[in-house]
Amino acid sequence: MCARATYSPMKKILLAVTAVVCGSGPRHGTVSKEPTQTANDCGVVDTTSLTGNGYGDLRIGAPAANVRRTCHVVRDTILLGEEALPQRVITVRTARGVVDAEVDSGRVFRIVVRQRVPRVAGSLGVGSELGELLAASRARGGEGEGGLFVVLDAYCGLSFRLAYAPADHRPDWTDDNLRELPRHTTVDEVLAVGCPK
Fold first, then answer.
1. Which of 92, 142, 146, 183 has the most Cβ atoms closer than 10 angstroms to its Cβ?
2. Does residue 17 form part of some domain?
3. pLDDT at 70 over 60
4. Domain that holds residue 87
5. 3-state secondary structure the chain
6. Which residues contact 31 (CB under 8 A, 6 or more apart)?
């Protein structure tokens, strides 16, 4: 038979206070405000935005081995890229969406977004309209890879591909040229290629 511990009234009060103050985890009815992260989440939480340099821990210039270590990789394969050349593509799933990281010489050189999430600061992304892009910043455009891409002065390292096939091709699209296009033309892809600033 075990001896029963006896505590003075003051010791009982201190133990009770300690149990309340140092209790483990949130109590029933409370919500933790801290974003929770899990292993291989790529450093992405609800407030993470796509930037010209990356998305969470998925960064332009990062070694592919780091991507495999810090992100949930769902596919690592070789696809036909520009001009039908083989291109290594790592597809990463985060709690906020799926993105592709294109790899050259063992490092991420471009991040491709084809879903509505992630978004860039200001809530621009796939599904945004040309009018929203032009309202956000001065713009210029260029044709390439089978589409018309818009680059915004205020969003270094990002380009937004429009779901639009230009009838008249031109080497450069000015802000004024872009304003002549239908304002409801939507973005169907966002590229992050690195911001040298």
1. 92
2. no
3. yes
4. 54-192
5. CCCCCCCCHHHHHHHHHHHHHCCCCCCCCCCCCCCCCCCCECCCCCCCCEECCEECCEECCCEHHHHHHHEEEEEEEEEECHHHCEEEEEEEEECCEEEEEEEECCEEEEEEECCCCCCECCCECCCCEHHHHHHHCCEEEEEECCEEEEEECCCCCEEEEECCCCCCCCCCECHHHHHCCCCCCEEEEEEECCCCC
6. none
User: pTM of this prediction?
Assistant: 0.79
Taking only the tens place, the pLDDT of each residue in 110-167 is: 999 999 999 999 899 999 999 999 999 999 999 987 789 999 999 999 999 999 988 8
Phi, psi of 82 (to 5 degrees): -55, 140
Is 19 a member of any domain? Answer: no
13 lies in a domain? no
Domain annotation covers residue 2:
no
Tokens 């008249």 belong to residue: 168
Number of compact structural domains in the chain: 1
Structure tokens at 174: 């000015």
* Cα dihedral 196, 140, 118, 74 sign: negative
Which of the two residues, 196 and 36, has the higher pLDDT score?
A: 196
Phi, psi dihedral angles at 141 (to 5 degrees): -135, 170
Per residue in 77-121, pLDDT (tens digit) is: 999 877 788 999 999 999 888 999 999 999 999 999 999 999 999
CA 97 from centroid of its chain's CA atoms = 8
